[in-house]
Request: fold
Amino acid sequence: MAYDEKTAERVRKQLAGRKALTEKPLMGGVCFMLNGNMCCAVSGRGGLLVRVGPDAHEKMLQEPHTEPMEMRDRVMKGYVRVAPDGYRSEAALKKWLTRGVDFTATLKGKAARKRAPRAAKKEQKKVSRKKRKA
Reply:
């Protein structure tokens, strides 16, 4: 299932101008990251995923139109799924995005990782094996 492009565009508009904000495809949806940490995502399964932190998790589940975020039958504590009715208005969307940004801003940033090409990885393994034999 493809994600809701209209919702993704609304999120882009609300988050526009923030430094260190990136966007990446994620499991059929689109994820918005702040300093390399997931802030929120427009889910391919529907709804908005918002990172609220483990301390606020239970409180956020008391809000209307929310449910726990689950991956492989496991609840992801600190994240909530908000149904479309929970962010229908721009004010409601802003409220959820602010929660996600505010929590994510407290986290230590992650450095961008660059993967080495496969050929380079194979060469590194060969060198390591030769060193062990010596």
Q: What stands out?
A: Strands lie at 21-26, 29-34, 37-42, 48-51, 66-71, 74-82. Helices lie at 5-15, 57-60, 90-104, 118-133.
